[in-house]
Amino acid sequence: MAENIRLEIVTPEKSVVSDDAKIVMAPGQLGEFGILPRHTPFMTTLNVGAVHYENAEGNERFVFVSGGFAEALPDRVTILADSAERRADIDIKRAKRAMTRAEERLEQYSKEETDFTRARVALLRAITRIRIVETR
User: Fold this and answer.
1) What one-character DSSP code corresponds to residue 41?
2) How many Cβ atoms sit within 10 Å of the Cβ of residue 80?
3) What is the pLDDT along the chain (136 residues), one digit of tens a residue?
4) In whole angstroms, what is the distance from residue 121 CA to residue 16 CA?
5) At 65, phi and psi to the nearest 5?
6) Which domains does the chain have, with CATH numbers?
7) CB of 41 within 8 A of CB of 77?
């Protein structure tokens, strides 16, 4: 029987994932990283992006995270995310509306005193949610 690693993804409000995985991939500050069972312990910050993992049954799963921290231990991965949504919980229409609003804010940046960084991050979050839902 293949070895698994325990994956926990939590936000300040709730537990989003508690599952066994064969591999976990996450968006670290220095790029995407992968964790397998018996991984060397480490801790890192996360970017906005998709955590994807293969569960014990071999099914690929996707979870949106908007930053936070990840701790890898030999037998588990804990992700403390600012916010997180399972693929099935993402409202694609809402994400597309958010993307449109962020794009409009970015276009007006030179015309008004809009918070450019905030609009750029909002756009990144919306695009990431859309990509997660549309990934086959």
Assistant:
1) P
2) 17
3) 479 999 999 999 999 999 999 999 999 988 999 999 999 999 999 999 999 999 999 999 999 999 999 999 999 999 999 999 999 999 999 999 998 988 888 777 655 555 777 777 888 888 888 888 887 6
4) 22
5) -130, 145
6) 5-87 (2.60.15.10), 90-134 (1.20.5)
7) no
Pull the structure tokens for residue 1: 């029987």
- Residue 80 has phi, psi (to 5 degrees) of -105, 100
Report the distance separating Cα 56 and Cα 70, nearest Å.
20
- From residue 11, alpha-carbon distances to 4, 103, 124 in Å are 23, 27, 19
DSSP assignment of 74-116: TTEEEEEESSEEEGGG--HHHHHHHHHHHHHHHHTTTTS---H
